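Bench notes, afternoon.
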Amino acid sequence: MTRLPFVLLVAVTSATASELPVTNATQLATALKRARPGDSVVMADGTWKDTDIVFAAKGAASSPITLRAQTPGKVVLTGRSRLRIAGDYLVVDGLWFKDGCVKSGSVIEFRGSSKTSATHCRLTNCAITDCNPPDRKTDYKWCSLYGQSNRVDHCYFAGKTHVGTTLVVWVGDQPNSHRIDYNHFGLRPPLGANGGETVRVGTSEVSMNISRTTVEENLFEHCNGEIEIISNKSCENVYRRNTFRECTGAMTLRHGNRCEVFDNLFLGNGKKNTGGVRVIGEDHRVIGNRFYDLTGKDIRAALCLMNGIVNSPLHGYFQVKRAFIASNTFARCAQNIVVGYPGENATLPPVDCVITNNFMVSTPGEIGPQPVVGPSWRTVTGR
């Protein structure tokens, strides 16, 4: 008797959820307007060309509204197709954007306009591949996160050849608390110019703002767009348990303070210019990372603490202060730790930093120094 109300509640809740199958853009737009919490709008397998999707709706925490492929990977959006997610508790699942391009903005945006962003929304099990314009100098992003508490997970991004970061977190006045996890960031060939990052969190203009974005459990493979694989440009972000395989650049704490880089794996496999972590700014923590067979030197060293600029502007180089570098492993790297790399007009060395309990080893005849195990190294050079 005591279980009956619960059973009845489940039956009623399940009965209210609907599947809305669609086969063309007109049906899709109508279904997205009709959808209610718990509903799923299901796109038919096939090629959808020049389909501009605006997914603006309000789901609920216990019953989100879902836009999904009939079969994951078999709904292929081409041409000028794009997706805008604007609302609360929305899920997009199984779509593949392939061989298309957009004029500006992003292929996928977590907003409908400058005033309608997304909150608690999720992009999962999707892909963007080879969505490049004819002119590689055309700047647009593939995925842009706005709003708060959104998630991009289990997605695949590969083949970006033009200007513009692959995935960007746009930081505002309030912490956004986004999560980017379990994605595969594949080949990004050298761009030959600035603007080829794979992930960027923030911009120099807002770099003192708090983002609190978490980037974890991702695979970065052959992400060679530019020196910065990940470009951190905001505060209090966490980068943990990611794998960087044969990427010719570094995970760069370019602007902002109080970020954490934990338990990441950097595999260079001897490939030219493979790097590790570059540190700029205050109160960063780099702990428990593993750096293997990296060939990069100076700003591409396994770990590089930059010098700062006197009275640095937001787009410059702030002095490294109070960095905590601990329990990292360096094996067969060309340069393990570089402290105080000068850079242009950068004369302020790192201060009040702790480098402790790191393990450094190489096999005789291979790149890197002879085995070194040091309990602690503290730099105190004045304020």
